Amino acid sequence: MKVLTVIAMAISLNLTYAESQNLVGRSRDEVASYMSEKMYDFSLQRYRGSEELSLLRYVDRGERQTILFFFDDKERCLEVRLIFDRAFYREKVSRLDSLYRRIGENEWAETRGEERYSITLSDDQFYYTIRFRRGEVKGTEQKKI
Q: How many domains does the chain have?
């Protein structure tokens, strides 16, 4: 029983690590390397058309979370979407609140150097989606960690 508890805690920490590392702006190779080194619970899912769409899709072992990375024509990450089972809602919101500055009911902001990022959470009826994007946000200060 103790072993299962330790494993569950390790998986939980691993699952929250993805949204703590904003990979927008990183190269396709950097994203792939990060995912293979840090997110060992997620595996790359190849499917027809994924290369034409400049998209990497990772799914966790339990198939309860999916991370989509969208790239531009220069292979730089434009957007990250974390799609997750409704059971993870409280954990994800708590994690976002601890890492980023909340600017709205389902909105957070991050500033890295001169770049601003918006993080939004949407309720898609059967699952939730967190989107990381570069762009204008309501504020520019990042919450101190």
A: 1
